[in-house]
Amino acid sequence: MSKKKGKDNEKNYDSIRQKFYKFLREQEIIIELCDFSNGCNDLNEPIEIEEKKNRNKNKKNTTKLQKVIIADRNCILDSQPDIERIWRIELEKEIKGLEGFKTEAKTTEIALLILKKRRTKEGTRKYTLYIILIELKTTLTIKESLESRSRKIKDKAGDLGSIANKFRCSMNRMYMLLTLNDHRNSNQGFQKDDIDIEFKGLIFYNTDSIDESKIEENSYDRQMYKILKQEDNLLRFQTLLYPEDKIAIEFIKNQDSKPKSMSIEFQEILEKLNIIKRKNEDESTHQD
Question: Residue 71 in 3-state DSSP?
Fold first, then answer.
């Protein structure tokens, strides 16, 4: 007597998508930090980002940037009602026994996804999903300066070209994950063209030891150096889907007295990345 196929064994597009999304949540690869439309708890709890490969290896190293703490998400409730949902995606998380998911050293530490509502000139509701790729580096340098260093020091440094490649790989990974995440849930009332995507990048670092004279022209190093010096803000490259893709990047230097970690307000990040207006801009607009 043949057994009936149970729901757990169904294989169709919707069931596979739902099962895989559920798997990613259970493995805490995709974590919803807040859904403001349904109420949100733990807004006082900071978002902590650690450089995972150095969690255990460098506990005695007092100069390596190992953690960034993003505090005070309450600013959203107070002044940013258009932000509706926030996700965290662990891009570097390794799942034991699962091939194809290990991306350590090839992607940024994490991605923060922020879903923000806006109104068009016609009065219709639209959304922007901001994807913030976040990387931690102790020392910024370029590839040529690494060649003369010992491996011990090389592991502590981050050449700009390699960081640029991490952003490219992370964007490729995000394009795949976006087909699984819950942004297009019909229960939310989203329509076909309701959500635009914008990539943003953040690089937290302690110091830089870059010799500009050694930077090759038309290289990732040159692009990143211009961004570091605020001569540009866009990193351009080819991704899986677009031959001329881009991401807006901000470098943030650690100003804390303790080089192992740094703290920053959530609102400051949103302002630096132009996701929300700066306070003084709002005030001047109001006065006008």
Answer: strand
Q: What radius of gyration, in Å, describes the C-alpha atoms of the chain?
A: 21
Distance linking the first and last C-alpha atoms of the chain: 79
pTM (whole model) above 0.90: no
* DSSP state letter for 136: E
Taking the C-alpha atoms of residue 204 and residue 140, their distance in angstroms, rounded to an integer, is 10
What DSSP assignment string belongs to 79-108?
H-TTEEEEEEE-TT---TT-TT---TTTS-
Quote the tokens at residue 113.
Answer: 């996804």
Query: Under the phi-then-psi rule, with left for phi > 0, alpha for psi from -120 to 50, and beta for the rest, what region is 262?
Result: beta
- How do residues 79-134 score in pLDDT, each as one tens digit? 677 888 899 999 887 766 566 555 556 899 999 999 998 877 887 888 899 999 99
Task: State how far the Cα of 159 lies from the Cα of 105, in Å rounded to an integer.
Answer: 13
CB distance 70 to 46 below 8 Å: yes
**Amino acid identity, position 62:** T
Comparing C-alpha atoms, which of 170, 97, 189 is closest to residue 131? 170
List pLDDT tens digits, range 210-262: 988 889 888 899 999 999 999 999 999 999 999 999 999 999 999 887 789 99
**Which of 162, 182, 168, 10 lies closest to 113 in space, CA to CA?**
182
